Amino acid sequence: MPDIKVTPLGAGQDVGRSCILVSIGGKNIMLDCGMHMGYNDDRRFPDFSYITQNGRLTEFLDCVIISHFHLDHCGALPYMSEMVGYDGPIYMTHPTKAICPILLEDFRKITVDKKGETNFFTSQMIKDCMKKVVPLNLHQTVQVDDELEIKAYYAGHVLGAAMVLIKVGSESVVYTGDYNMTPDRHLGAAWIDKCRPDILISESTYATTIRDSKRCRERDFLKKVHETIERGGKVLIPVFALGRAQELCILLETFWERMNLKAPIYFSTGLTEKANHYYKLFITWTNQKIRKTFVQRNMFEFKHIKAFDRSYADNPGPMVVFATPGMLHAGQSLQIFKKWAGNEKNMVIMPGYCVQGTVGHKILNGQKKLEMEGRATLEVKLQVEYMSFSAHADAKGIMQLIRMAEPRNMLLVHGEAKKMEFLKDKIEQEFSISCYMPANGETTTVTTNPSVPVDISLPLLKREMALGGPLPDPKKPRTMHGTLIMKDNSLKLVSPEQALKELGLSEHQLRFTCRVHLQDPHSDADTLARLYSHLKSVLKGYTVQHLPDGTVMVESIVLKVSSSGDDPNLKVILLSWSYQDEELGSFLSSLLKKGLPSAL
Amino acid sequence: MLDCGLDTSSALYFLPLPLVHSPRLSKLPGWVSKDGTVNLEKELKECAGRVFVDTQPEFCLPERELLDLSTVDVILISNYHCMMALPYITEHTGFSGTVYATEPTFQIGRLLMEELVTFMERVPKAQSATCWKNKEIQRSGSSGTSYIVINSVSCMCALTIFTLFYIVECFCFSSFKSDVFVFRMLPGPLKDAVDVWSWKRCYSMQEVNSALSKVQLVGYSQKVELFGAVQVTPLSSGYSLGSSNWIIQSHYEKVSYVSGSSLLTTHPQPMEQSSLKNSDVLILTGLTQIPTANPDGMLGEFCSNLAMTIRAGGNVLVPCYSSGVIYDLLECLYQFMDSANLGTTPFYFISPVANSSLEFSQIFAEWLCQNKQSKVYLPEPPFPHAELIQTNKLKHYPSIHGEFSSEFRQPCVVFTGHPSLRFGDVVHFMELWGKSSLNTIIFTEPDFSYLDALAPYQPLAMKCVYCPIDTRLNFHQVSKFLKEVQPLHVVCPEQYTQPPPSQSHRADLMLELQPPPMAYRRCSVLGLPFRRRYERIHLLPELAKSLVPSEIKPGVSVATVSAVLQSKDNKHVLQPVPKPVPVPPSKKRKRLMEEVPDLLSPKPLLSGAVPLEAFLASLHKSGITEVKVEETADGHILHLQAEDALIQLEEDATHIVCDNNEPLRTALRDLVLRFLQKL
């Protein structure tokens, strides 16, 4: 029985270092190759020794697919391809291919140049790795080899994020990456057709959350920013350079415009302008509204938002600063946070999910004293606000996607075990499908039950469809008869007559003849007539004919009557049928043995 | 329906639509037939010996009478030029199907339609001429004097493939003129115009929007299922942004529609060829209209003529479409400009959609050639015209009115439409610059005969240069391409099967194939040479498991299948026969009816022979020992003496005669069956 195996090397009951192995129809595919923000040691990357203990990655893997440019989905890519060693194709969408190397280079700089780590991938390795990338267009069916095909769907989440359908023969798996089922200010909602995969592998970051309407959250966000600015405080918004940042910039830009506010808005990294440029060039990946109006007004050209300089952090007066990275685990956002944390007038707004172990995660959990390097402690006095702007599907969204794709099985990754448990129960209840949530290194095996494709001869199919009528009766299904010819890996279903012809065989006729004696005091002709009406009344639904040549025919069975010379009342009924009418013939011979009813 | 192109060459019969009042055009004399019986001086005007209709230009539509458009389920669009007739087909016709096109095709097609509507609507004609179409006029009278031949323009071809349940037939109609209606009494060239009653004025923006709302966007190599019966897939055709060839296939048949393809490296993604292999039928259309001109050479000529005119202090007018070759022209000029000392010459691009066209060209990186694609990774705009705009070398304006009139400097280069020279801003520049021999008009679009285009402006002092740039396949490339993809049959317009009439000696300017291509022409109905024999069906796993295959010959096995067919949306599935639900026995029925066998379970066919010796041996084994064998002409008769039964054994038949002994009969039957194969 064919089966599909799924093994997370990362993101199994966890968020971070997404990396999932799928074996389907003899093909092995790696989905995402991310890093973990919460660790600085070996656990930062997925454990590739799971594969390499049995040989090289290139031999094992048929392809690698990256869903989007976030580092927890692509951060380990150069390590995997250049340091562990993989030379096969890596698939990602055009925007991901454009932006991914920039973020990788950023990540490398922070790790190597700032933290002084060695034994890390180099700039050259990033470049070499990107040479192995094959760009993927939405809805394009890419033939990885003769059997394996993949197809990308729009996932919303960030610019260029994709869900992928992986198909071998009639078996298929969908991997969602990270996705968003509600359109936001710059991206559209995820969409997939009713592809009925054997397994739907879905992220479950917000497995237990059902978020209120986007509008409310936006209003809330603007209100908080506005209040802080009014009382002269500073607002820090830690973000990733690409993605949420652009959405919130659009939001603040329009708000500033409308309210005619003067407080400065800054964007911390040099990446901004470049990032906005990517959005302009990949405008086809943004939402409907932005695409429609981009010729008149490009939403990614901001009037109120300016580049940040380190020295501005000490400027007096209110300001809003977007700073990277988003989880306050390093870099500029952390530096500014340290400066502003002591003043209760200030505010930090965390617009997205924070991985365990990061400063962001700690302050969100209400920690008021933070241990910094060098035994210093930082007192957190500023207001900490959490606003879920990260574009993940919530529980409602996940259910919605299941309804769209109609999977046969569900598998959850990229979430916390407890929350997954809850969602798993809900899915199993609502859809009556099995739901799995393997931990890292744990393999889930799903047995598939593929139907067998066969070539049916057109005359046979047409005849059958015509006989079935336009609306077949489900209570009385018609049985179709055919012969399946199996030859050189081809399966052909033809009518038995055609099968004989195609195989060059002649038919063998098998006939039976049977004489039944019965007492019937009538003339032969009358007996025949009585026989006719008897059969007619018993065999409803059959063709019973009284032929002029002195025979009765039931379907193709011939019946004749004669009387024996000695006793004119003793009739001999001669029955003759072919093997095709065996059941009817056998039935008739025993029926007639009982004699004809006298009432006739 | 394959494509939905508009034949705009009909516009050449009309007088240009000026943006500002043109004294010259308004003073043209009206036309009256020689004998004076017909007076159409209000509608027909004469210019330099030719007669033009003085009304809003009308267009020649794809054939709409041959079939009921409400029966068309799907329209496949191959490039933005081939969708210009869409509103005529999808609106007010009962059409309720879906149109498939790529995103660039859709967006740029929308721009071109918008432009056409704007060209027409911003200069409304006070009255519209209809008398010249009057049938009465065409029935009698003498013929005119002057005469020109309008080239059969148009790559635009609309084909309809009927998918009732399968692809069965192919109706072809292209806008090539085949049955010429003669307006016997009208002057030339009008008397040669075809089907003028079917000519229509331009659609409205509302109709455009409604038509475009029926478009479904698709990507290259996307497999689109149609009604479960066929799958269509667009492939890059290399001709323009988003241009596609289409594969239409079922599990067993494959039709390729190759329309407007190019093998040259210009801006679009290269043509995808390998997926077109193994087609049963390849429909080929949209070859180059200028097979004798080499696009590279023409580009060189374009640049040198442009530079020469500017150096001499003249202006250059380039009538062009707002998307397509213009991107390549601008890129070429970008490289050429400085070396030719054109750095300070202003370049103007004037069209209601100029800005949109330039902006849209930059956001379709996925649809561009490799080296343009890689630019966006930097991130830089893929086309250098962004830089031309930034450095103010290229300026674009929606029309000659407004900003342009104040910023306009001469000498300059103006790119503007429409290439027919009958409407759009180009009309103004013709009036403005036509009188000076310093100026040059350079024709680059191949769709119109430049002599015909210029006719209503004669006499003309301005220089005319004809450098048509048509990047589509030429006959040499086609024959190489066909050798590569090897379709079983080729279907193409009749025109491709003979050399062009003007160059009848050039046997290299036609398609020569073995077997010869099947040619179509407007309104001809062609049957595609298919023999459909098989369809895909799926056996449910439970059914597949229950089958008992037996080997008939080495490597060939058969199994009899009894199953229930389920067909839904043209997908067929075989399920196991459900176990009959036991009928609750009513007493009366039980006696008579219980044994009546089911009508619907015929036995399999039998094949093979029953060998005498082996059969006797197995009879023996079953305890039947007294057998008398009698030889006959065709076999043997076995007399089972103790049982009083006869078995007649022949090569292809066995006959069992057995009275009153059902157990014996069934035993004998099973013995015989053991030797036979069941099908």
Please characterize this protein's 3D structure.
Helices cover 31% and strands 26% of the residues of chain A. Chain A has 4 domains: 3-210 and 391-437, 4-Layer Sandwich (Metallo-beta-lactamase, Chain A); 214-386, Rossmann fold (3-Layer(aba) Sandwich), CATH 3.40.50.10890; 455-503, no CATH class; 511-594, Alpha-D-Glucose-1,6-Bisphosphate, Chain A, domain 4. In chain B, strand 23 (550-553) and strand 24 (556-568) form a beta hairpin. Residues 138-184 and 588-594 of chain B have low confidence and may be disordered. In chain B, helix 3 packs antiparallel against helix 5 (205-212) and helix 3 (103-121) packs antiparallel against helix 8. In chain B, the strands form 8 sheets. In chain B, strands 8-9-10-11-12-19-20 form a 7-stranded mixed β-sheet, with no helix packed on it. The two termini of chain B are 43 Å apart. Classes of the chains: A alpha/beta (600), B alpha/beta (679). The interface between A and B is large, with 83 and 93 residues.
Task: Give the tags.
heterodimer, A: 600 residues, alpha/beta, Metallo-beta-lactamase, Chain A, Rossmann fold, seven-stranded mixed β-sheet, B: 679 residues, six-stranded parallel β-sheet, 31 strands, 23% helix, 23% strand, elongated
Topology of this protein?
The complex is a heterodimer of chains A (600) and B (679).
Chain A lengths: L2 E8 L8 E6 L2 E5 L17 H4 L4 H4 L2 E3 L5 H4 L2 H9 L4 E4 H21 L8 H9 L1 E4 L4 E3 L4 E7 L7 E7 L2 E5 L23 E5 L10 H17 L3 E5 L5 H16 L5 E3 L3 H11 L6 H6 L11 E3 L11 E5 L7 H10 L6 E4 L8 H6 L4 E3 L5 E3 L3 E4 L8 H11 L3 E5 L3 H15 L2 E3 L7 E4 L4 E6 H11 L10 E9 L2 E5 L1 H7 L6 E11 L4 H15 L5 E4 L3 E4 L2 E7 L6 E9 L3 H12 L7
Parallel strand pairs in A: 3-4, 4-5, 5-6, 10-11, 11-20, 12-15, 12-16, 13-14, 13-15, 16-19, 20-21, 23-25
Antiparallel strand pairs in A: 1-2, 1-22, 2-3, 7-8, 8-9, 9-10, 17-18, 24-25, 26-30, 27-28, 28-29, 29-30
Helix pairs in contact in A: 4-6, 5-6
Chain B lengths: L22 H4 L17 E4 L2 E4 L20 E3 L9 H5 L7 E5 H19 L13 H5 L17 E7 L3 E8 L30 H8 L2 E4 L5 E3 L3 E7 L7 E6 L4 E6 L21 E5 L9 H17 L4 E4 L5 H12 L10 E4 L3 H9 L7 H4 L11 H6 L3 E4 L5 H5 L5 E4 L9 H8 L6 E4 L6 H5 L8 E4 L8 H11 L3 E5 L24 E3 L3 E3 L7 E6 L1 H6 L3 E4 L2 E13 L2 E6 L10 H7 L12 E2 L4 H10 L5 E5 L3 E6 L4 E6 L2 E6 L3 H13 L2 E2 L1
Parallel strand pairs in B: 3-4, 4-7, 11-12, 12-19, 13-16, 13-17, 14-15, 14-16, 17-18, 19-20, 22-25
Antiparallel strand pairs in B: 1-2, 5-6, 6-21, 8-9, 9-10, 10-11, 23-24, 24-25, 26-31, 27-28, 28-29, 29-30
Helix pairs in contact in B: 3-5, 3-8
